[in-house]
Amino acid sequence: MESCVPCATPMEQNLKLRRDDSDLLPDSSQYRSIVSSLIYLTHTRPDISYVVQVVSQFMSAPQSSHLLAIMRILRYLSDTQDVGLFFPATGTPDIEAYAYADYASCMDTRRSTSGWCVKEGSSFISWRCKKQDRVSKSSTEAEYRSMSEVTSELVWLRQLLEELGVVSIYPMRLYVDNTSAIKIATNLVLHDHTKHIEVHVHYIRQLVAEGHILLSYITSEDQTADLLTKAVATSRHWFLAHKLMLRKYHQFEGGC
């Protein structure tokens, strides 16, 4: 792949892979080996978390179209070898998070994709992209499931940082771009159409009421977690990657 043609994004925009897209690969061992290595790489490259989550779904029976998808990821990585996470030398212990969901994004099961990321100060320290374990009946429900997942992560991170002696007096702020989800979390009336997700609702409500979580609206254009739920255009990809503190190594000055 050293002499391959580079590409600016890890996946073609609006590309949707399915289980029966093309012919099965005669030998799937190479596919599994590459995807396993890419999964390991997502621990330091959140910009490929979504696409790796997509191609990892087909490891049991990979097809030629799926192999083309991971070849594009390798072409993208070949062109961005000098990109990595940037951690400034100065910062604050304040924690904030971004939660987003791509509603019914899986073409085979119509399950939604959750994407969230957490940062301490200006440094992103945790992120995840995952297909939800059940079908959501609305975009609000899908958003709520994503919010519930990142809220559990926030509580754990807050406890971990306190054990390490890093204490913040401010509530953890959670940014979402769904006003309906925010209203349900702050409204004590549980409406009939949300009863099937009331466990997620009550969990977030309790933390909001106790002052641990502060819900804030953010526009879809500024939603950082959008990069963890779908393939986007080149300009938006690098705009969101910059917000995730992904920089070129020669720019890493005053950080670690």
Automatic annotation (TrEMBL):
This is Uncharacterized protein. The lineage of its organism: Eukaryota, Viridiplantae, Streptophyta, Embryophyta, Tracheophyta.
